Amino acid sequence: MELNQIYVDENFLAVNKPAGLAAVPGGWEADVPALVKLLEADFGRVWTVHRLDKGTSGVVLFARTAAAHRTLSLLFETHAVRKTYLAIVVGIPQWDEHTARHPLRINVGHSHRTVVDHAKGKPSETAFRVLERFTDHSLLEARPATGRTHQVRVHAYALGFPLLGDELYGQPSIERDAKVPRRGVPLHRPALHAVSLEFEFEGKPFSFTAPHPKDFAEALEKLRLSEGFQSPPEE
Questions:
Q1: Does residue 232 belong to any structural domain of this protein?
Q2: Tens digits of per-residue pLDDT, 51-93?
Q3: CATH number at residue 100
Q4: Residue 235 lies in a domain
């Protein structure tokens, strides 16, 4: 598989991960090729700094030395990395910007869902901003301040705007529920793309951007053509 390398130096590398490829091997899919193994075939040993869900596309960062791994991991742990996602959601928010602070508990039940749990959940925060409104869907920017599993997906769902194509968190498949407005949008995964990462490493600023993958871009184009742009609600 040919990988889209965004940046490579002696300390780390950034890759535009395609949807459908796991970042690291694990679980019942341990024998399925993962991004880290594909990179190691070209670069030798690499260290995982953070992860994206298998169904999420976009920028992923890997360290190339143990020292760089320690530094980058600390940046993520201290929330010194600015992460920006794009999400296509079902529904039209009446707000232009909103910060979700629902506490989250991970790995719940047989499907290993992340759930809102005000008693046992860990503090979690995602800032949302509406970029485009259509008739039945919206394009949101999401900036998670914390890094809980499935955080953006669950916070969007908790606000009442599940991601298009997200069967785990409130968005049924088009085959199972024809009532959910899909308008032939060609996306068969959660509509989430990690568009950029920004951070400072050893005093030098870095900013990496991943362009929309084909399925995400086609879904947006379909929505713009079939639903049209809607102006923001009046105050």
A1: no
A2: 999 999 999 999 999 999 999 999 999 999 999 999 999 999 9
A3: 3.30.2350.10
A4: no
pTM: 0.88
Active site annotation includes 53: yes
Q: What is the pLDDT of residues 148-197, one digit of tens each?
A: 999 999 999 999 999 999 989 975 443 334 344 445 566 789 999 999 99
> Could you say which of 9, 42, 53, 177 is catalytic?
53
Range of the domain at 113: 4-226
Q: What is the pLDDT of residues 86-118, one digit of tens each?
A: 999 999 999 999 999 999 999 888 778 999 999
Q: Is 231 contained in some domain?
A: no
Q: 3-state SS string over the chain?
A: CCCEEEEECCCEEEEEECCCCCCCCCHHHCCCCCHHHHHHHHHCCCEECCCCCCCCEEEEEEECCHHHHHHHHHHHHCCCCEEEEEEEEECCCCCCEEEECCCEEEEECCCCEEEECCCCCECCCEEEEEEEECCCEEEEEEEECCCCCCHHHHHHHHCCCCECCCCCCCCCCCCCCCCCCCCCCCCCCCCEEEEEEEEEECCEEEEEECCCCHHHHHHHHHHHHHCCCECCCCC
